[in-house]
């Protein structure tokens, strides 16, 4: 493995993030605060507790996941689509680097940013609500794993997209609905009967459930099932990227 | 001399079904400067891009420094520097960082002193902290060259490095090329300008329609390019070349209205004066004379025709 290459790619990607640190962090912090005001205050005054947890605290894991997933996909897809768009992809293709270096550099940086953003939101949340964290280490590990898997997913979208419009398509049409329907702001037990079954086909439900478990020690779906689902998704994305580099799909004519 | 880049039966068919390279074989000698000349769409960029790993070959084999570009691609690519034809640079990146980044991609540890040397040589040092976007086109091309040299490649590909470049930069670039040659770097450049090949190349390759038509030492090619023709128009048609002028290699033009004499313009004695004197002595009515030099264009046309 070409470690120097990983280092320079990672450093360059992070440098872009830190160059615009205010925008990068301000927007998630502001939107999180807005969610707190709207959901926590307005709806929370009607729903007292969910499974014994105050509604304000209940939505925190969902808020973090919402932002981490969208940021991971947005960052990773942009990071790899941009060089394709301006033509500097050639530089990467001609260099003695392959699947391992490019994925570690780009996806590592995108995931790193998401983890930072997730932690900032968590810190913001502490300003608004009393928040127990039942399994702190598991919580951090899940935060990292989610950032990683959705950055991998975003990377694939960035390669797949032929223009910036397509780049927005999947996040807008697929991801946002899945996240909102995935129990970010409610427990799936609160859904009417048939919808509970339908919800189980939504991968985000597993993510949300296990992440909430790391805070409140209760889960909609068994923790083991969630973990298997997340690892399977990560492995699937990794496999797809490996195949992309092997076949040159949409990167090497 | 050993071949540092060896291309065997290389075929590239793009996904569109277009065959841009039709079984190209080429040996590039270590330390030489090879100029690849060819019209638009000849396949120059495709050939270079395939050797550099940007384009997937359809079939055939390429080795760089003995390393196969398919099975031993890391070692092969590590030896190569590429200055692409299209200017593609990160607009917001600073010059120095962009060049250092390129070095890192090739697995080399940071070496600010080397980067400084490269930037100074390309007159970019005062621009080192400037963003790339506001630089002029020529400056951007210099940055591309600096990036290609950042990792001290053994083989350097320059794809039309002087397209749209002023005389100043062209001279700078040739100086850089000379310098690299002195360090033993092998250089392959593509160009549309025969003067450029003439100025710096050791060998010249001509490519058209995805085929290498010839690869020849510059000197012998130049001699061929140096052929000139003298056309003497006659006031009255003649039936045949007069006896007295036989053995001078004259050919009779259409309608017997002209005589064509072919000679080597690089020779000191072209034989023109003697010929004209003899023609007058033979009583030929000379109406007009014109000379014409065979150009690269002619050689292209001849070669492509011969290839059919
Ligand atoms: N990605 C691609 N897909 C399909 N056809 C392509 C692709 N890239 C190049 N071609 C075609 O292959 C042929 C050779 O192109 P190439 O760029 O190698 O020519 P070139 O000799 O570099 O020309 P120029 O002097 O204009 O730079 C052209 O007909 C071109 O249209
Ligand atoms: Mg070209």
TrEMBL record, chain B:
Q: Does the keyword Transport apply?
A: yes
**What is a single molecular function from GO for this protein?**
ATP binding
Sorted alphabetically, the keyword list is: ATP-binding, Nucleotide-binding, Transport
**Per the database record, which ranges form the ABC transporter domain?**
5-234
Q: Does the keyword Lyase apply?
A: no
UniProt cross-references to SUPFAM superfamilies, sorted A to Z: P-loop containing nucleoside triphosphate hydrolases
> Which is one Pfam family of this protein?
ABC_tran
InterPro entries, from UniProt? AAA+_ATPase, ABC_transporter-like_ATP-bd, ABC_transporter-like_CS, ABC_transporter_ATP-binding, P-loop_NTPase
Signal peptide coordinates: none
Q: What is the protein name stated in its UniProt record?
A: ABC-2 type transport system ATP-binding protein
Taxonomically, what lineage is the organism? Bacteria, Pseudomonadati, Pseudomonadota, Alphaproteobacteria, Rhodobacterales
